[in-house]
Amino acid sequence: MKTQIYITVLLMMLLLSCGQSNEKKNKLLDKNQTVTKTFEQREKERLEKRAEIEKDEKLDSLKLDRVLSDALRIAEQNIGKNKFQKNYKTSSNIEVELDLDNHFTKDYPHLIIRRHADDIDDLYIDIYSKVDSKFEKAVSHQQWKLTYQKDTIQDINGDGLKDFVLNWYGANGCCLKAFSDIYLLRNDKKTFSKSFEFINPTFSPNEKIIRGIEYGHPGYTSIYKYKWNGEAVDTLEYVYYETDKEDKKTGKIIISKKRAYTKNNKNIKKLNSVPAEYKNIQNYDWFTGKGYE
User: In the sheet where 110-116 sits, what is the strand order?
Assistant: First the structure.
């Protein structure tokens, strides 16, 4: 009798244990399904949001293309003029500026078209040369408005021709980051080179030289020296402070063909001070670190 009771109790415990185990498994499965479902839902929402952004960007692009085409038609209606200006706002609130003039040379007029709007992140600048009673595109530049500072027309490389210069300041990063994008006017006085980009530059057209401060912390960055070579730029040298194994300055100045910290950096010169030609470049104090301690 006692044996039967013992067996019955044992069977009931086993059944109860199996039931609890199955219940735990079911709860775990439900939990995993919930997590999976949540991840899939989030991924779906992310993709939908991305698709919506891409759709808006495509619509903005199409809208801006139409605005440019309309601006060109207005300019073509005034093709007989060497000077023409018009500013207007489209029905989609895009600001358009047309400026036809001898901006770069007396021989050929150039048309500058600007497009921008409050709800569009970028500024668009297109330059056309007027050739045989028609406009031919020479430059197309897109710049984030948050970084844009100004643009100018000046001879940058010392060839006697005026170039297009766009200045902007980087939005990300810790250090000095003033950039210039350069489009050189070619000898045909109609077309332009590809874009050249320089960081923290000081231009010296008479020497055909560009000197500037590389990206880096004050007192621990380098000066570069480049030279124009037609539609190319040659690296002449880099200037930086010598440091010891503990990264402390030794008081010596290094002149090298290669950037600082480059492995196997041979053929260097050591000086006691920075050459005079570099002391008048913009932001020279950033190089020395003076005032930034």
Answer: 84-89, 95-101, 110-116, 122-131, 134-144
CA atoms of 111 and 23, how far apart (whole Å)? 77
> Distance (Å, rounded) from C-alpha 16 to C-alpha 80?
97
- Between CA 92 and CA 8 the distance in angstroms is 84
- For the chain (293 residues), the mean pLDDT of every run of 10, in chain order, is 48 50 52 58 64 57 91 95 95 96 95 95 96 93 97 98 98 94 98 98 98 96 97 96 91 92 75 96 96 83
**227: Cβ contacts below 8 Å, ≥ 6 apart:** 207, 208, 209, 210, 233, 234, 236
The reported pLDDT for the residue numbered 227 is 98
Residue 124 parent element (H or E): strand 122-131
DSSP 140-198: EEEEETTTEEEEEEE-SSSSSS-EEEEEEE-SSSSS--EEEEEEEEPTTSS-EEEEEEE
How far is it, in rounded angstroms, from Cα 7 to Cα 12?
A: 9
142 contacts 124 by C-beta, under 8 angstroms: yes
Contact in structure between 93 and 110 (CB atoms under 8 Å): no
pLDDT at 2: 45
Query: Which residues are paired to 87 by β-bridges?
Result: 97
Alpha helices in the chain (DSSP H): 2-76, 284-288
Count of other CB atoms within 10 angstroms of residue 240: 23
Task: Say which residue the tokens 């056309």 belong to.
Answer: 128
- Among positive and negative, which fits the CA dihedral 265, 181, 66, 137? negative
Contacts (Cβ under 8 Å, ≥6 apart) of 122? 116, 142, 143, 144, 145
